[in-house]
Design a protein that fits this description.
This protein is mainly α. The protein has five helices and no strands. Helix 2 packs antiparallel against helix 3 and helix 3 runs parallel beside helix 5.
């Protein structure tokens, strides 16, 4: 089993990562919209969905790393420039949103706490942005190392 999984990054990382990230995002979506799914998800479900989505997203990147290490081709859009820019934009959007939430709280005289949902979404966006940014550099390092070994 170990041998099979070591040489099948799609089954080890990509498919579970996609499934886990999708479940997390779906849970967050249901919690934000108060959709009844056998129960009405609340803030705990939103936090759990955030964590699950972040973990699934990281698994997807592990799958991409494994594909590069196995000399497999990647889609052309997975460049350092594209991924680091997207990660930077996601991080910046989350940071701006956090600052807005913070300023709203300060503007209320520290009396009215902002909705926790906003904070969870801000920090999820920040975490995904940072993961994307730094993972794109790691992906680039692995790809460059692979190219040098082939020469």
């Amino acid at each position: 089993m170990k041998f099979m999984l070591m040489f099948a990054p799609n089954y080890l990382f990509m498919y579970p990562g996609f499934l886990i990230a999708s479940v997390g995002l779906l849970l967050m979506f249901f919690a934000l919209l108060n959709v009844y799914v056998g129960y009405t998800p609340g803030i705990q479900s939103l936090i759990a969905g955030s964590l699950i989505a972040i973990l699934g997203y990281q698994l997807l990147f592990f799958g991409v790393f494994a594909r590069v290490l196995q000399h497999r081709s990647l889609p052309r859009f997975l460049t350092l420039e594209c991924c680091s820019t997207l990660g930077g934009l996601a991080f910046s959007a989350g940071l701006i949103w956090v600052l807005k939430v913070l300023l709203d709280w300060v503007g209320s005289g520290f009396s009215a706490l902002p909705p926790v949902e906003h904070s969870v979404l801000c920090f999820t966006l920040i975490a995904l942005g940072l993961q994307t940014f730094f993972s794109s550099f790691m992906l680039s390092i692995i790809a460059e190392h692979r190219r040098r070994l082939e020469l």
